[in-house]
Structures are given as structure tokens and as C-alpha cells.
Amino acid sequence: MGSKSQDPAKDPFLARKHCAILDSICVEEQKTFYVMDIIHWEDIDYTDYPLCSRMLFLQQKFSSIIDLNDESQPYKFKLIEYIPCSTTNFLTCMYGSHLIPYINT
Predict the structure, then answer these.
(1) How far apart are CA 87 and CA 90, in angstroms?
(2) For 12-102, which CATH class?
(3) What pLDDT is attached to residue 35?
(4) Pairing relation of β-strands 32-41 and 44-45?
């Protein structure tokens, strides 16, 4: 697991420290990035890690960055809550909770 190429000469991104690639949605009106997943953090490629490991890592990293959402920052970063895809969760998302009594689980 981890980075496929650990050689900075072959992968120019690895030559940069303190970088991250996050899968996120930017809502310009709110000046907020809603982070869904992590792809790369510093020198580690997370694409081969299981989703639960990536979510745990994101939560730990975001809680340890003290000035992440400081008022001096032009944009805020918020983690989107992970909700597993299930029939109940999907239908609740699409139609609201009033269908839950009719779902056969």
C-alpha cells in the first residue's frame, strides 16, 4: 500500500512536502471546501487504502490542524460525514424518512 513510486525524480509531486490532494466540493458562496476523501497526503498515496482507513486518517489529520478553519483563512474545510450506501440510506436521502416503514430490510 502507499505510494506507487517513492522516487521524487520520477514523481515531481513527491518532491513537495506538506501537500495534499483531497476529493472535495467547493461551494464558492460559502467559501468552503467539503472534503469527501483523501487521495494523497505529504508523501503517501492513499488510493490503495480501504475507505474506512482513509476516513479515519482524514478525521485525525483535520482534528490536529489547529488553524485549519481560523478566521484569517479565506476558505474553510469541512469533512462530509461518511454514510454507508444501503437501501435505507439511499431512499432516505432521495425521498426523506417517511418511506422507512415500507423498506424491507
Answers:
(1) 5
(2) alpha beta
(3) 92
(4) antiparallel
